[in-house]
Give the backbone structure.
Amino acid sequence: MKAVIFDLDGTLIDSAPDIRKIANEVLAGEGRAAVTLAETRGFIGSGAAAFVSRMMAARDLPKADHPRLLEQFVARYEGAVDLSRLYDGAIEV
């Protein structure tokens, strides 16, 4: 075998709590209400840009702010692992 490829985030690791924390930091800076963990899970999929778009739409933020808020989100996301955990059974995989 020359390589093994697997999907870590969302498959072996539940990073939604960290993503929620980051989203809420960005939203607080805009004076908007926090997102719930359930909302966060619903926004996840297709990358950071799509997540931020969904988050912004849910909190009625102008689309023109997307580049700035995406930059803030990504800057916080890098290295955010305080709340991420392995899913049950991930060790066996």
Q: What stands out?
A: Residues 13-86 form a domain with the DNA polymerase; domain 1 fold (CATH 1.10.150).
